[in-house]
Amino acid sequence: MAMTVHVDIVSAEGEIFSGLAEMVYAHGVMGELGIAPRHTPLVTRLKPGEVRVDKGSGEMQHFYVSGGILEVQPHVITILADTAIRARDLDEAAAEEAKRRAEEALAGQHADFEYAKAQAELAEAVAQLRAIERLRKAKKN
User: H or E element: which one contains 114?
Assistant: First the structure.
């Protein structure tokens, strides 16, 4: 039997996942992280993007987080996010529309604050679309 670690993914709306995993993959601000059981303790910020939870036996669960904090303890991984959604529940049409609106806002920038907000919205929409695309590829395999 493979070693496992307990994983909790929590958003402002509530807990989205709690269970055992053999590996967790997430996009930290310094790059992609792969976390296995008994990983060195770590706290880092997450970028908007996909979180993958490998439960073993070929079962991979996909989630989208809008950013947040990842904490690793020897036997527990906790992800705290403002927004966390199961990747299969993402709305591709809404993400495409958000991307379009953010690109329009960037083209017609009026102030630094609006520009920064539009950049953040664009990054989030692109991250959602990437998560949807990865989920499609995973289903094909």
Answer: helix 112-140
